[in-house]
């Protein structure tokens, strides 16, 4: 298995090779190139979200719990000081939830099923918001490159 940096490098390399191979068929704009590169980056490290000690897992854990807390504070239909408490409660709940779930080492996020689902969601989102299929496909390329490097090809 590769580490964080290797997965990113391998993902970008895979994308570059694909771009080269399909050069004649794809004509992408600067926005597509930029969002595509970002999507490959995210996709190449996404599966390691299920590695407890991985950088990605910890980053997602902090990001998700902090966002959930802030969101609660912003939208909860309560008085200011209650919203403050609600925000902190949600933050702690999400954080401990993440710490508690027993995730199988190289479990679901290291399957082709996950790759297909994430790519489909990625394509829907990118078509909806950016009017292009490229970032969604790029996400799939990133995830696939990760599975390739980990040598995981189960469904
Ligand atoms: Zn992995």
Can you write the helix and strand succession as a string?
HHHHHH
Q: Average pLDDT, to the nearest integer?
A: 89
Q: Which compounds are bound in this model?
A: zinc ion
Count of folded domains: 2
The tally of beta strands, per DSSP, is: 0
Q: What is this structure's SSE topology?
A:
Blueprint: H1 4-21, H2 30-45, H3 55-75, H4 80-100, H5 112-130, H6 134-150
Helix pairs in contact: 1-2, 1-6, 2-6, 3-4, 5-6
Bound molecules: zinc ion.
Brief digest:
By secondary structure, the chain is mainly alpha-helical. It is built from six helices and no strands.
Please characterize this protein's 3D structure:
This protein has six helices and no strands. It is mainly α and 155 residues long. The model has no long low-confidence stretch (mean pLDDT 89). The structure holds zinc ion (ZN). Zinc ion (ZN) binds next to helix 6. The site of zinc ion has 6 residues, from helix 6.
